[in-house]
Write a structure and sequence with these properties.
- The protein contains nine helices and 13 strands.
- Strand 5 and strand 6 form a beta hairpin.
- It is globular, with a radius of gyration of 20 Å.
């Protein structure tokens, strides 16, 4: 199968985006092109949740290096969900995947012999969107990823806000009408406005199972009053949080990513109207859709790995 990519004097980086369901992985060459993109089930082990991810990274590195032939993989970019300390390379907490205070950077480096650039999945997706996508040219923006949950990356004066790993937990901002959340709080945004919550709340209200939020939106557009209620409550909750973020940060734009962003104007237009009605003297943020889409986290991991090479050159 090799060479997987053309010869590249800058070498290759291996990028991995670890999610609650699957891992996306690819090689990136010096031009920024991704090669050999794959999606694999995220390995799970309740007793060794971090170790099995490290073992999978090492296995995938060996596989991709074999396919790349003589073109060397020179660094690894790894992003994971949950609370993350990017400076120390530690996954502080993932309630979904089970690790706590796990030293990813150190263990991956020991397992592979390569330098590792480690980060938060949505944080680095946001960095990629700001550098290559809808955020190019902006200095004050929020990248909000709406999927099974909701998380964000906040940028002020051209810099991402880290908050010790706690910044960007937009999905756990309190909203009216929110219900008990898996995080232990009650009234979190993602219990009302995430794609998963929209589908779940519609099924609970009507007894009709749906595969996702897209079906609820389609039913609302067709005149289904129950679907319209669930969709409108999600829009109102999102608008309330966007208005609050804007009032605090003065953001120029909010960039929506994740599966729900594919709703396009059906989401952005009503959110924009409600945000406008909640603000007075504030700067009105532009509401934009992600350009990088589902590969934003993978691209962010690759960019960080490439930056690591440049810093050590």
């Amino acid at each position: 199968m090799h060479p997987l990519v053309p010869r590249d004097g800058n070498g290759l980086v291996l990028a991995l985006d670890v999610g609650g369901t699957d891992i996306k992985v690819a090689l990136q060459d010096g031009s920024g092109t991704l090669h050999g993109l794959r999606r694999l089930s995220t390995p799970r082990d309740a007793q060794r949740p971090g170790d099995v991810v490290v073992e999978e990274v090492a296995r995938l590195l060996a596989d991709y290096q074999e396919q790349a032939g003589s073109v060397p993989v020179r660094s690894i970019g790894l992003v994971v969900p949950g609370l993350v300390d990017e400076v120390s390379g530690v996954g502080i907490l993932s309630t979904n995947l089970g690790w706590r205070n796990y030293p990813f950077s150190r263990n991956v480096e020991e397992a592979t012999g390569l330098p590792v650039a480690f980060g938060h999945d949505v944080g680095l997706a946001g960095e990629a969107e700001m550098r290559l996508g809808a955020g190019r040219g902006l200095r004050d923006a929020v990248v909000m990823v709406i999927g099974t949950g909701i998380a964000g990356a906040l940028f002020c004066d051209g810099r991402r806000v880290h908050g010790g790993g706690f910044a960007g937990e937009i999905g756990h901002a309190p909203v009216a009408g929110g219900i008990p959340c898996a995080c232990g709080a009650s009234g979190c945004l993602e219990t009302v406005a995430s794609a998963g919550a929209i589908a779940r709340r519609y099924t609970e209200l009507t007894g009709v199972p749906v595969s996702g939020a897209r079906e609820v939106l389609a039913a609302a557009a067709a005149g289904n009053t129950d679907a319209a209620r669930i969709w409108n409550e999600a829009v109102e909750a999102l608008a309330a949080v966007v208005a609050s973020i804007t009032a605090v940060l003065g953001s120029e734009a909010v960039i929506f990513g994740g599966g729900l962003s594919q709703a396009g104007s059906a989401l952005l237009d009503p959110v924009a109207r409600l945000v406008d009605s909640r603000l007075s003297f504030h700067r009105r943020p532009r509401l934009l859709s992600s350009v990088l889409g589902q590969d934003a986290g993978l691209t962010g991991a690759a960019l960080r790995a490439r930056d690591l090479l440049a810093a050590t050159a």
